[in-house]
Amino acid sequence: xxWVLAVDFGTSNTSAAHRIGxxxxxxxxxxxxxxxxxxxVYVDPAQSITTGEVAINxxxxxxxxxxxxPKAHVAVGSVMVRxxxxxxxxxxxxxxxxxxxxxxxxxxxxxPSEVVLTHPEAWSQRELAxxxxxxxxxxxxxxxxxxxxxxxxxFYYSRQHDAKIVKGSTIAVFDGDSPWVVDTLxxxxxxxxxxxxxxxxEEVL
Length: 205
Fold this sequence. Notes:
6-stranded mixed sheet
């Protein structure tokens, strides 16, 4: 049976969901105890990258290889580790690959028909290109598409609650991942997937 994987690569944590059929959507467990995994990575001296809790544990012994928030370096395109610039896409790819492998294990290693990655509404084309490069490096199966985090949240809410969102509506989406932000979208056409380009982002202290 075909399935779709969606990944929210957050600043602090990463989460994922898989859709089986047209209506069955479930959160993907990313550990034995949680549907979240830390977005942190650890780069060893040979530039092999580990992720999540494993990365955090390794950082206690060797903090020089630890990158707590790879997403915070996307605008620059690289991150300094052990005195060398590492492409940030490589660190993101490691996180995406971990999630992808976890998802495959729950689908008899059958690749998804589509992979959806979320991103901040305000990201530039350059930042989106980093995410696409990371997806390519991670070897994600199926076609890969990108959607902004607030649009994805609004679309999911409207589907789950059968909410009719009409042209001209303004939607506020609260994102609790660090840093906390509120995004507002104004719809150009009916449906949150057709949200216009008006965008406001505010950090919540």
